[in-house]
Every structure is written in C-alpha cells, then in structure tokens.
# Entry
Amino acid sequence: MADDNQILLLHQSNINAMFFPITMRDYLMVSFFQRYLLPGLIYQSVIIAGGYATGREIVEFFFGAGPRGGLLGILVAMTIWSVTLAACFELARITKSYDYKTYFSQTLGRGSILFEIAYMLQIILVISIVGAAAGELLSVNYGIEAIWGTITMMISVGVLVFFGSSLIEKFLSIWSLLLYIAYAAFVVMCISVFGDKIATNFTTHPVGEGWFTGGLTYSGYNLATIPAVLFCIRHIKTRKEAISAGLLAGPIAMIPAIFFFVAMMGYYPNIMEQSLPVNYLLNILDVPIFKVIFEIILFGTFIETCTAMIHSINERIAVAYDDRDHHMPRYMRPVIAFVILFTAIALATKFGIVNLISQGYGTLTWIFIILIIVPLFTIGIWKIMKSK
# Structure
C-alpha cells in the first residue's frame, strides 16, 4: 500500500493506461490548476486564433476608438467575459452540463436548436478565418503554398480529436502557457524598439467614440465559444471554484490581447491596413529566430481553436449516442473534424480573412447575446439561486 504522503492517480490516455505515483502536494497543485486555471486557458485557446492571434480581430473591434478608447473597450469585453463565465460555469456545475446540448436545454429548452444552428455557423466562420490565416502565414513568410499549412493544421486537429479530452486539455493548456511567454517577450521587444511611438500615440490621440459598443460586440460573439469550454468544467466541485474560475477566465483570456494592442499602437493608425498585423510588427523587429519561434506558436493557436470547437461538436454527438445506449465510434471524431475543416476552408479560400472578420462576426454577435447572455442571466441565475 502507498504511504500517507502518496496517492496513486490513474492517468488514462487513449494509447494506454498506467499508474503513476505522485505526492499529495503534486496532486493538490494539479487539482488547483484544473479547477481554477484550466477553464480560462481553454477559453483563451478557443478564442485566440480567430483573428486575435494575428491582430486583425483587435483592429476591427477596437482601433476605431483610438488607443485609449480601444483599451477601454478591451476592459469592457474582459469584464463581461468574467461575469458571464462565472455564472455559466456555476450553472454547468450544478446541472452537470459538460456538453452544449445539455447546457442549453437548461436555459433555452426546446429552443436550444436555435443555438445549435447559430453555433455551427460560428464554427464554420471561425475555422474559415483560422484556415485563411494559417495559409497566409506560411505563404507570406516562407513562400510555401497555403494548402500545406491547411493540411498540417487539419492532420493535427484530427489526431487531437481522435484521442479525446485528456490529450486536448494537456495540449491546450501547455500551448496557452507558451503563448503567454511569447506575447510577453513580444510586447517587451516592441516597447524597447519603438516604445516612444507607443507612448506618443497613447497621449496624443483622444478617446474615440464606440469603445463600449466595440467591447460589447467583441465579448458577445466570443461568448459563443462557451460550448468548447464545458468539457473541462467536470473538474469543478464547488460554487466557489466555479465563480472563481469564471472571474479568472476573463483576464486569462484577454491579457495577451492587451499585450498585442499596446504593441500595435506603435504604428497606429497605419497598421490598420495590414491583413496580418503580427507579421508587420515582426518584420519591423527584425529578429529572425524570434520570428520563427513566435510564428510556430502562432500556428499552434490555429490548431488550438479548431480542436476545441470541433471537440465540442464531437462531445455533443457522443451524448446523442449515449441517449440511445450506444457508444460513439472513435473513428467518427476525426471524420467529423475533416468534414467541418474542408467546408470552412473552402469559405476562407473564397472570401479571405478580412472580409470574414469584418462581416461575419458582426452578423452573429447579437444572435448570441440573445441566445446565451439573456437566458443565462434570467433563467440561469434563477436556477443557480434555487440550488444549494
């Protein structure tokens, strides 16, 4: 038998399963991470690649209000995320809603089919943007045909969704931590090279109009990615953990965007014309080894977003199988992934990243505010208050 200072945890992967002895201290650290930090890191993993990682999304929603106004808009979005995710995580915890079919049946009832339709449109749109960005990243920087970036991304996503939740959690959390390090280094380098320009733009440009609307709109459509986070809420056991994880998720998801926004202010407003602002700034910094490392991490964020969103679809289908006393065949997971990816990337090829972000997101935002935020803060809060 193990002594009092050790426990045995079963680490099960889809390749094999075996026991690893770890100390109680290690176990408590893992438990803290899973309950308080993992949901925020998963949320950040889902939202980042749809334009945020390249900077294009930030330009579309926040640059119109100027440097200080844009920063205010980002803080508005972060606050809305925190409050909404805190309520969402607690509702998911008390109702054991770890897939979006179960979750939205709690707030929309039979109307949950409306969310399913809108969510599928959102997934196609986001993956279209990610596919366009992945291809453009390799094509612009390395002269590699865009299709090879797309194929690499598709294979990576297929492997991750095949092996399921455990591997996905590990990949998304580790890559998010790498992203934090890369973005922190990026903003420090930008400040050291052209910090005077950043400071000048922040002090000389007034707060523009529309910063609150920009923050509200940006937060609204990104909250549509809630379904992709639900699978990791199974680790949360108490109301304190759910609310704390939700409140932390806002800053965890938004801090890299703040870093990037500050860096881009060095070349405001000219940078607004760039389809890939991140590439524009990396070329100005002219540090080849950092550019390669950053772009590898950036490419990984594309895989993160696609994986998390497609995994949420697979989990929804798995529940449908369970309801019929069947088990979802494992081979279906990558098959579903490839079908969604092919459809989305076909759209990306036709319309391009800038048009998809500027036109598609705005159209869906208000639909998600009606289907997610309004029911959550009425029916959802009522159910939370009723529970012990």
Summary: The two ends are 37 Å apart (CA to CA). The longest strand covers residues 6-12. The chain has a mean pLDDT of 83. The chain has one domain: 39-386.
